[in-house]
Amino acid sequence: MKYIVLTLLGFSMLAGCSNEPSTDPTASAPMAAPSMEAPATAAAPEASSLVMEYVWHKAGENFSQDALMEKIALWNEMIDAGEYDIPRANILFPRQESEDFDFIWALMWPSVEARNAGWAYWNANDLPKWAEATAGILSYDEANAYVFELSRQREATLVSTGETYENEFNFCTYNEGKGEADFAAFQSAHTDFVNGYEAERGLSAYGYALLTPTFETDPMPDFVWLDLWASAEEKADGVGYFEGSELQAQLVEMATCNVVGFAGLNIRS
């Protein structure tokens, strides 16, 4: 697992696949167990049926950086040739080791219906070819594919130009006596906080989205907050600015969160 994360450091040196990777980190989004020209206000929730799907993957004995890049190129060719509506895709490498997966293939779909049709076509037409091509390199179980509705809340002020990025999923449950009104107040304070950060530190590629699970899980989070940064350095600076702040104290008072961080690789746009 450590090898998989370390190989990510070399991905930014590689050329893109058949589809040049997007540089927009909001294309990504992960698993329950988730920029700026002038100080901006939080974007209104996106009126859209966009969904993000996270498919857990295991690395095989023949896994390598080169092998993965080859399979990404093959996958894009298959998606282009088939009946799929996948505008964006990413691969997420966990910053903390997990027994459940080695990495996650993240897919953006325009709707749940498009997702279901895509999987039906895949299983009927492309699965045998993919299984043969990836034998010993990587594998997945369709049972470990998790779909979330996506609502972008704050677009990045500066657009990232890199193939790699960082994200962090916060699976949160309200503390006793807290609820949606407190969350709305927190979002408003968060907007002011990010604007203040940018006024002091300079414009950034930070943005965030909210994810709503379309599946049942126990416990069910009250909200899933996905933070996105252009780089590990930008994340470290932003997190450092947040730690010890009044906004962090407001969050701790409002909710208890399970935080999971990933390094991301954009593979399709």
Could you explain the architecture of this structure?
With 269 residues, the protein is of the alpha+beta class. It has a single domain (2-13, 22-268), classed as Alpha-Beta Plaits, CATH 3.30.70.100. The protein has helices at 2-7, 65-81, 112-134, 180-201, 232-242, 246-254, and strands at residues 51-59, 88-94, 103-109, 138-154, 164-174, 207-213, 223-229, 255-268. Strands 1-3-2-8-5-7-6-4 form an eight-stranded antiparallel β-barrel, surrounded by four helices. α4 (180-201) packs antiparallel against α6. The longest helix has 23 residues, at 112-134. Mean pLDDT is 86; it is low at 1-47.
Task: Describe the SSE topology.
Blueprint lengths: L1 H6 L43 E9 L5 H17 L6 E7 L8 E7 L2 H23 L3 E17 L9 E11 L5 H22 L5 E7 L9 E7 L2 H11 L3 H9 E14 L1
Antiparallel strand pairs: 1-3, 1-4, 2-3, 2-8, 4-6, 5-7, 5-8, 6-7
Q: Which CATH-level-2 architecture?
A: 2-Layer Sandwich
Q: If you average the pLDDT, what whole number results?
A: 86
Query: How would you sum up the major sheet?
Result: 8 strands, antiparallel, barrel
Give the helix/strand class.
alpha+beta
Number of domains: 1
- What general outline do the C-alpha atoms trace? globular
Distance between the termini: 27 Å
CATH class: Alpha Beta
Oligomer: single chain
Please state how the strands of the largest beta sheet are arranged side by side.
Answer: 1-3-2-8-5-7-6-4
Instruction: Summarize the amount of helix as a percent range.
Output: 25-40%
- The total of helices stands at 6
Using the coordinates shown, work out and report the CATH topology: Alpha-Beta Plaits
Order of helices and strands: HEHEEHEEHEEHHE
